[in-house]
Amino acid sequence: MSKKQQALTLEEANLQKIVSHAKEYGFVFPSSEIYDGLQAVYDYGQNGVELKNNLKQLWWKAMTQLHENVVGLDAAIFMHPTTWKASGHVDSFNDPLIDNKDSKKRYRVDHLIEGKAEEYRQAGEEAKAQALLDKMNELLNREDFEGLRNLIIEENIVCPVSGTANWTEVRQFNLMFATKAGAVAEDSMTIYLRPETAQGIFVNFLNVQKTGRGTSMKIPFGIAQIGKAFRNEIVARQFIFRMREFEQMEMQFFVRPGEEMQWYEYWKQKRYDFLRAIGLPENKLRFHEHEKLAHYANAALDIEYEFPFGFKELEGIHSRTDFDLRNHEQYSKKKLRYFDDEIKQSYIPYVIETSIGADRLFLAVLSNAYTEDIGVDAKGNEKKRIYLKFHPAIAPVKAAVFPLVRKDGLPEKAREVFNLLRYDFNTIYEERGAIGKNYTRQDMIGTPFCITVDYQTMEDNTVTLRHRDTTEQERVAIAELPRIIGEAVSFRSILTQLQ
Ligand code: GAP
User: Fold this and answer.
1) Ligand 1: distance of its center to the CA of 356 in Å?
2) What is the value of pTM for the model shown?
3) Closest CA to ligand 1's atom 6
4) Which residues are CB-contacts of 189 (< 8 A; sequence separation ≥ 6)?
5) Nearest CA to ligand 1 atom 10
6) Three-state DSSP class for residue 371
7) Which residues does ligand 1 sit against, CB inside 6 Å?
8) How far apart are CA 143 and CA 200, in angstroms?
9) pLDDT tier at 7 (50, 70, 90 boundaries)?
10) What pLDDT, in 10s, does the model give residues 332-391?
């Protein structure tokens, strides 16, 4: 087995652990699983939805509450089809693909060539890898599909399934899903499921600006949005990393032309700080500046995270110039200009965009939290403990309350504690099962606090409070619980790091 194959197997095994854990503990299920699932579509279970909501709320607050000049929006998924003509998605939102005639498998051309470059890199041939990537970028920029096919053949790139180089021509494939609006065939109109949320912001730019408060809606200002996006991804793999239906958290920041690079740097730092504050470690994050720029950008970078399958894009920061607003102005024939009081000029603003997938952030946070500790049990035997080490503010469940036994008034007392906490925190009450097993189950879903009501509670109103990461237990007064838990799980502890 080659080094690369070994590495892949290890990566696959690491990802598989996360996928299995996510399913077993109610985080993520394959969509319509009873019908064997639907490729690249997933459902969030009882713990997954809580975790995802926490991440979305934190992003929302970090963007809007912490920036006086950023406001929210919730635009529809369906938009007038001309939107996508103006944005360039009808003509340019394509992936060049190639099929292997023997295996009948379809691949993205850039993925195949990048795979070969990675092989060179692993063999220590850095210069060769870079030359190959440069050549690929040049051909992609020129849309030279014959050249790309020749490059694949010259480099002897073979299909990982059939092992042959029996390739078809390279073809373009548009990633937008189309559907029909209107019941009568003649009147129906082809509309698209939005492939990004950003265009809903662009077309509402003046609505928001004109209806906003004076000082906050002066340039520079931003509009933030969370919503579903859809892409007919060809190579759908790596769990929720690349989905066909996913959720984006995007913000467009409108600036004076010529000032875009300073805001690009500002948001690059802000977004990095956010990812660090929610618990992603420094050594698993890095920046990657784009060499091949998208059709709308004059600068772009990815914040990459080290997923179980290597460093991959988590978030994009793009300087989109005035590309979108200018095109919407041209196609809609409506002025999309801003009159800048300070310089007495009217112009189409430039835009810095921050764009992160809620699902990708979820995967980053989940895989980072997954922890296996090897310890020793009471008999001195090696024992593995698995737990999810979430920042308490994003953990799906904040506290679980158990009575030690189901008699002598302990369940009633435990319910009192549960009622004290449930209005402020997502709390679980459980009276079945042994305490040890209950602790393990809460570790598996990352609950930071477990509270046990025992006989001593009945005498002095104290409980044992167990901490997830250390498994240490302390005796605390019931009346102290809201404060202790409240301080640990408050969004404040994250948001104050971002000022
Ligand atoms: N508006 C700009 C835009 O959409 P993008 O780089 O294509 O840019 C932005 O996407 C982010 O959306 C990515 O960094 C990623 O987090 C997320 N994303 C994109 N495609 C995705 C997919 N198929 N599945 C899950 N997340 C995706």
Assistant:
1) 6
2) 0.90
3) 316
4) 81, 180, 181, 182
5) 355
6) strand
7) 196, 198, 231, 233, 242-243, 246, 248, 250, 313-316, 353, 355-357, 359-360
8) 29
9) low
10) 999 999 999 999 999 999 999 999 999 999 999 999 999 999 888 778 888 899 999 999
